[in-house]
Amino acid sequence: MQINWESTINQIFSDTLTCPRCSLGYAELVVSYSRRTSLNSYAPRHRECPRGNECEARKLITLCEVCANEENVPGMKADADQLLEAYIIDCRRDLEDALDYLSDLWRDDIDLGTNNLEKRLEDVDPNTYKDEIAWRDRLESEYLSYHSEFRKRKIRIPHPGWVSEYVEEILSLGYETQLGN
Q1: Is the pTM of the predicted complex or chain greater than 0.70?
Q2: What is the pLDDT, as a whole number, of residue 11?
Q3: CA–CA separation, 37 vs 61, rounded Å?
Q4: Using CA atoms, how far apart are residues 77 and 133, in angstroms rounded to an integer?
């Protein structure tokens, strides 16, 4: 099953929550994290993962209570506002991972010669750099959609200082960001 992310996020924004497993509407869904590949199709933010259904990364899972019990997924019930908060926090985690990768972790994935140790990712592997920038741009756009929805609902954004810390770090690396300057 492939989740239509745009439909999912629009449902959250309209306070209508649909279980991705049974397709029924609920006021609350069970929210949990899992690495189980069998649950990948119930992780709305997992779309476009290059590893697809084989991905063993930790993912935010949302299911109705009945489906969560049937899939043996423990978690907490969340309404639309709480689910929105879970998504923005999960998106931040992915943005921090992208920042860490751009700053240093990419060096673990590429066999660097001694004359490339001080170079930046875009100089050593332009294709990987292009993919990472596209991924980060998508995450930043997603983050901005959550941020906008918090404002529209007139509810406090959790940990609002996070944005300025992220922006400072990404700018100090010499990269641009959609989140401000």
Answers
A1: yes
A2: 56
A3: 11
A4: 34
